[in-house]
Amino acid sequence: MTILQKINSFWKENPILRKLARNFGYLFSSNMISAGLSMLQGIFSARMLGVPGFGTLGTITIFVTVINKITSFRMGELVIKYVGEFNENNDQPRAAAVFKAAALTELVASLAAFGLVWLLAPLGARYITKDASLAPWFVVYGCIILANLIAESSTGLLQLFDRFRRMAGLNVIQSVVTLALIILAWWRNTGLLGILLAYLCGKIISAVGLTLAALLEATRRWGRDWWKVPTRLLIPHARQLVKFAVSTNLSSSLSLISRDSGILWVSYFSSPTQAGYYKLAMALANYIQLPIAPMPQATYPEMARAVARKKWADFRYLMRTGTRLAGGYSVLVALGLIFLGKPLIQSLYTAAFLPTYAGLVIMLVGIVFGNSLYWSRSALLSLGLADYATKVNFLVTIVSVAGLIALLPRFGFIGSALVLSIGSLMGNSLVVIKTRSELSRQESLFPTPQADPA
Question: b vs e for 360-390, b when ≥16 Cβ sit within 10 Å of the residue's Cβ?
Fold first, then answer.
């Protein structure tokens, strides 16, 4: 048998790999297109705003994003796990009830998030961007939350039912619209407000599109009156649903404090200029993450199905194959950024951004490690260990916050880059150890896989 025949045979004998590759392919293609468009967005924005203005842009957008995510309860993950479980058991009324309950909860949380942005905008402008006059702009960008009313629940439903092609299309449309509006803002020299409005419009298109697509999918699956299904059907499962929602929200909120809000810490303890360096370093480092970012979305539903059917070999296969693919890619791109980073920054973003390079190299250590184990959080959630993820994130948050307070005043954004990498190494290592331990325990308890549903 030739090598090509072996590859073809292996491909035909692994339906889970084919399905994962198809779903990943849709999101990978859209993310690669979006990556190129995002790079152009960043170049035009950075050249027009300069280092301090670029930092202020990042501070405003992340401020709103953090508040929105803190209140969101990660309903997408809950939808994937519990709609998926009820769907596997052919309990369609409860599957619809979970989606309905998740959407209603997220709607209320989103309204609360917008209220928080409105209340906290003056403080954010004064103490983080160091310019009290920018408070109205925080509120303007905060309008994205109103478009995102049930976007997370919608995304979860589309992922669960393999509607990745629709998600990919919306992602590309958002990027194209945003770039066109940023170029218009650059040409007319509208400044920071023009750039903010460009990002706002693009995200509104994506959020509304996801919501409409999910509502259509729900109607197709459960009928036109699915939204009339009583949520009281979930009373016997209320405790585990609430526990899962609270655990995932706490876990992700802790990550927001220590990792995703890095630019806010930098701007608060240092200056918008240091925040500008940090924003560009993260943007360049994220080019490694962009092709990997869809993989948890494609992998989590498959892991959840593998656990529901007790197919532990499939679960291990997803972990092993994912690490090889993501790790190999991440190392290669990281080496490219290390060798070409300086000329890339100087030629595309101007020499004023060159101090970014040192922080970029430090960030790459943690990002490559985290990328290689991109499945770690999905594995914990699939195994019902959302509370362990919370404990790990709590530990990482304590270490990270202490590090940020100690290092930022002295080292600026370099200190934040160090904390980011250390947190990634620590958190992912602990999660992988726990996942392997729990997987071995589950294999001993349920050695025989369940039959696939008809």
Answer: bbbbbbbbbbbbbbbbbbbbbbbbbbbebbb
Give the chain's radius of gyration (CA, Å): 22
Please name the residue that has the structure tokens 């969101």. 72
- What is the token pair recorded at 254? 């802790």
Instruction: Indicate the angle between helix axes 386-411 and 413-445, nearest 10 degrees.
Output: 170
In a domain, residue 8? The reply is: no
Evaluate if residue 11 carries a pLDDT over 50: no
Q: Which among 258, 253, 250 is positioned nearest to 405, based on CA atoms?
A: 258
More confident residue, 72 or 308: 308
User: What is the 3-state composition of the chain as percent helix, strand, coil, each rounded to the nearest 5?
Assistant: 90, 0, 10
- For residue 202 the two structure tokens come to 């693009």
Rounded CA separation 400/406 (Å)? 10
142-161 pLDDT, tens per residue? Answer: 999 999 889 999 999 998 88
Q: Could you read off the pLDDT of 319-371 as tens digits, one per residue? A: 988 899 899 999 999 999 999 999 999 999 999 999 999 999 999 999 999 99
Q: Count Cβ atoms below 10 Å from residue 442 Cβ, excluding itself.
A: 16
Is residue 53 pLDDT above 70, yes or no? yes
* Exposure string over 430-441, b if 16+ CB within 10 A, otherwise e: bbbebbeebbee
Does residue 9 sit within a domain?
no
Any domain includes 257: yes
Domains identified in the chain, total number: 1
pLDDT at 88: 82
Q: Is the pLDDT of residue 410 over 50?
A: yes
Q: Is the pLDDT assigned to residue 298 strictly greater than 70? A: yes
The string of DSSP letters for 124-158 reads HHHHTSS-GGGHHHHHHHHTHHHHTTTHHHHHHHH
**What domain range is 256 assigned to?**
16-445
Assigned domain for 368 exists: yes
Among 328, 296, 424, smallest CA distance to 31 is for 296
Q: What whole-number distance in Å separates Cα of residue 138 and Cα of residue 122?
A: 8
Distance CA 191, CA 34 (A): 23
Q: What distance in Å separates the CA atoms of residue 400 and residue 409, rounded to the nearest whole number?
A: 14
Which residues 6+ apart lie within 8 Å of 340 measured at CB?
none
